[in-house]
Amino acid sequence: MALQFNIAGIGSRFVALLLDMILLFVAAILLVIVLSVIGAFSSEMDRLNAASKWLIAVLIFIPFLIFWGYFTLFEAFWRGQTLGKRMMKLRVIKDSGRQITFFEALARNLLRYVDYLPGFFLVGVITMACNKLNKRVGDFVAGTIVVHEQVEDQPMLAQAGAVLIPRTQDVTFQPDPWMQSVPSMFPADAVA
How far apart are CA 37 and CA 45, in angstroms? Predict the structure, then answer.
């Protein structure tokens, strides 16, 4: 018996990433504000002594940790989802269908930088467009896929469109929609 998954497309993955990036942008702004307040109270920051060199190293490491750590830790410990993926009802799983581990999430997200090259996720989008499982470079390395959780729980943008017809009158469909008569809102005898 083969497992079947509803593979997430480029659009739904982009929206999930956009939501995650908005969250990370807000976190980065808050971090800059906190570090500015700390820097304003420190009068010793002008001299480059050993403590300030370590502080600069930490300030460089924190954005890296936030950016890659966010995706890695959420996907590893929140059942393959970040906040954006959860909102879009997406999940990262192994090709075999099992939940991903920390090391698979780490490998997948460390290669996220390659997907960004040369800018605007060009390598990632081209890679996803060239395979039917919509895998980016990190997905190939980690052996993962991104899937929709359940068809009935997908967001409205991801579902196939359905036509809702009010039950006020019987409507019959003809094979050619352009030949179908549209019922009038006004009865023929009301128009004078």
Answer: 13
Contacts of 23 (CB under 8 A, 6+ apart): 83, 84
Spatial separation of the C-alpha atoms in residues 150 and 120, rounded to whole Å: 29
**Per-residue confidence at 62, pLDDT binned at 50, 70, 90?**
confident
For residue 165, the one-letter residue type is: I
- State how far Cα 165 lies from the chain centre: 33
Tokens coding 126: 């081209």
pLDDT band at 20 (very low <50, low <70, confident <90, very high): very high
Check residue 120 and give left, alpha or beta (phi > 0: left; psi -120 to 50: alpha): left
